[in-house]
Amino acid sequence: MTLKTLTRKLGLMAVLGLTSAAALAQQTKTVDFGQTTVQLSSTFTNALQSLQVSLGTVSPTHVYFGTASFPVTGGALDLDTAAGNILHSGGLTLEAGGIEVSLQSFIIDTTGSKPVLTGLVAVNNKLLGRLPLFNLALPPGVTLPLQLQGGFILQLDNVGVTLSPQAAAALNAVYSIKAFKAGLDIGTANVFAIVTP
Q1: How far apart, in whole angstroms, are the C-alpha atoms of residue 20 and residue 87?
Q2: What is the largest CA-CA distance in the chain?
Q3: What are residue 123's DSSP bridge partners?
């Protein structure tokens, strides 16, 4: 074996070793299932009531005692950076004056500069597209990397949920009002998800 061949083999082994180490250190986890609940704020529910807007749900979401539940259906999350997507089924409807706005198929998206919840928006069953609906604020004390309970449970509590500027503008345009304001307190979310170990 020549010195040149030996050098190449050693170099290849080093690259493979680094790749293997990187794979072992990878912290991106697949989200399998779970549930996100949102305790709706009285600020939000009172605002809807004053505007005579009825709150409904998209199956399989349900609202009990002021708490809305949205099943987690998938996604992926990097524990080191908290960047990722968590997908949900179900949603909410807002109805007033014969106009129904459907907000559904929510995605918690933490890949940008700030965490946001996006959703598909439809007006009277006509799909408009996906919009950033709610801004999310992680509670104080959350540190990186994210820790899993028992090695496979992700639990994030007391996440603040507020109306995004885009959602406020869209709702105002649909209902021809100016009452929806960006930053409106929607409620507090708790995220529970099972991830692949």
Answers
A1: 30
A2: 84
A3: 101, 126
- Find where tokens 């940008």 sit: 112
- How many C-beta atoms surround the C-beta of residue 140 within 10 A? 6
User: Are 53 and 94 a contacting pair, CB within 8 Å?
Assistant: yes
Tokens of 134: 């709610």
Supply the pLDDT for residue 6: 41
pLDDT-flagged residues of the chain (< 50): 3, 6-7, 9-24
Give the CA distances from residue 20 to residues 52, 56, 80, 140, in Å, rounded to whole numbers and listed in that order: 59, 50, 18, 35
Q: How many CB atoms lie within 10 A of CB 190?
A: 16
pLDDT for 140? 87
Six-digit token string for 32: 């399998």
Residue 169 has a CB neighbour count (10 Å cut-off) of 14
The Cα–Cα gap between 105 and 81 comes to 24
**Amino acid at site 70:** F
**Tokens, residue 138:** 């992680």
CA distance 46 to 57: 17
- Whose tokens are 């500069």? That residue is 113
